[in-house]
Predict the structure.
Amino acid sequence: MKKIVFATICFFGGQALLLAQETVTTTTTTTTTTTMADENNPKTSFYVGFGAAVFEDHKISDNLAAAGMPGIDEVLPEMTFGFNVMGEDYLVDIEFNTNYLDKKTSTDRIRAVAAGIKMRGHYIPVNTGNFYLSAGADLSYIGSNYDLFTRGNVIDLNDLNPGTHTGHISLYNNQFYAGPSLAFGAFQKSSFPLRLNVGYEWALISGKWKSEYANVNNTFRESGQGRFYAKLTFLL
């Protein structure tokens, strides 16, 4: 009888041990799968950035100087809002940028607003978790609008004939840029992760001066113009 009881205990004990081993194996496999899935999921975030863009001389600057108009600054402030996707060894940005210019003399004034979209693709060769360095390329499309006008202009609502109103020139150009860029990320594990973006771009396509309100004679292109930018971005 004791042998039968002992054999029964051994049988059920063996079955319980096998079941426990299967449970542990299943749990381990599940845990490993979950960890791999987390590693393969890139991080996404929105960000804002503030910095400056440094332009090479605009070709139109000579024409402005000849007319006695204020020139275009080589350094313009730049603001950015973007969306970032970051993996273990890569990052991708899509961002919107804008620049603003307002210069005047005692008699004339020039205002300019530039807005564009940029796509950035980077490889990350160095990533310590809290700091990373990435390098890659940018593709940008920027549209710029310039208003040149005489200060003190008066519009008479009782006389809206455009032929009697002068002293205002409106011009625009659109340019496609491409070039290399770098990014330095810091404090990535803190509550305020930062990133410094720097890059240099060349205008490759278009850049021809046009107007929505008049035909432009003796027009030319700003193609080939370069621009350097540096800005600090804050993840939201």
In short: The helical segments are 2-40, 60-66. The two ends are 74 Å apart (CA to CA).
